[in-house]
Design brief:
three-stranded antiparallel beta sheet, 10 strands, five-stranded antiparallel beta sheet
Length: 276
């Protein structure tokens, strides 16, 4: 159970991942010919390609569902990813069922044949899907370990003290709790996560004072109104004309000014953060 609640990087299904799963299914069908496919008299290559194409399209159609899940569950973990993966396979099984019905004229629509194709799709698609989940989690762990090593080498203090800028004199947070700071209507707000909940605190100071006192190689200014913790960045969307950052536990996307684009790109590469 402890494994299921471990943090997992939330991301939409990418073209390359959908292509990997689809081609894996095509190879399995061509090489192993499971479920009596060896009796098929038609073009087996065309048939396998059709299943791969259905799988590829279905996986990309799931992305709107994943966006909704991201808003519903701000803390994504392995258990939620596996649950969504099972839903993706179930959705693919429905698409494959109707593809099979259109391909084989002798097949009749019935509850038993539907359950049969659910079993077939899970049997073929479960292994490549689980491998993809494992691969993404392994990359996430490597990135986290790399960040940990950088923290040790740079000997950065783990505590950020905001006491002198707050009505609460002992207000301080750990660096790995800090999400971002922003200025709105000349008021500075600090957003941080603690015990899996996002908290916001208003500071009585200027944005420049905050920038001068907390910015380092991990906490950086990305916009005239935003300072972010780069270790909290899950993904970057956009291009050189304009980036936006998706942080862990935060639904809003943080803008990046062109002034900071070059320096941030170098940090993205250093921290192995992919640009979508």
């Amino acid at each position: 159970m402890n494994l299921l609640i471990k943090d997992y990087p939330f991301q939409l299904i990418k073209l390359r991942d959908a292509l990997f799963v689809s081609l894996s299914i095509m190879v399995i069908l061509l090489l192993l010919r499971p479920f009596n496919l060896y009796k098929y008299d038609g073009n087996i290559w065309l048939l396998a390609f059709g299943y791969a194409a259905v799988t590829f399209s279905s996986m990309l159609l799931i992305n709107p569902v994943k966006i909704g899940c991201d808003k519903l569950f701000p803390f994504w973990n392995i258990g939620l990813e596996l649950l969504l993966t099972a839903f993706v396979i179930f959705f693919i099984s429905i698409a494959n069922y109707f593809y099979t019905y259109l391909t084989f004229s002798s097949m009749a629509l019935s509850p038993s044949s539907f359950m049969h194709w659910i079993f077939i799709t899970f049997s073929v698609g479960l292994f490549p899907s689980l491998f993809m989940v494992y691969h993404q989690y392994n990359r996430f762990r490597i990135k986290a370990d790399r960040s940990s090593v950088l923290n040790e080498k740079e000997e950065i203090s783990n505590i950020i003290n905001f006491g002198k800028y707050s009505s609460k004199n002992d207000f301080q947070i750990e660096q790995n709790e800090f999400l971002y700071a922003e200025v709105q209507c000349n008021k500075v707000y600090v957003h941080f996560v603690r015990s899996h909940e996002v908290h916001t605190w208003e500071l009585k100071t200027t944005f420049k004072n905050i920038s001068d006192s907390i910015c380092n190689h991990h906490i950086i200014q990305c916009h005239r109104s935003f300072i972010i913790n780069i270790d909290m960045v899950e993904k970057i969307v956009g291009n050189s004309n304009g980036y936006k950052l998706k942080l862990r536990c935060v639904n809003e996307q943080i803008p990046v000014s062109r002034k900071y684009t070059s320096s941030l790109k170098a940090l993205f590469d250093q921290h192995a953060i992919l640009i979508h």
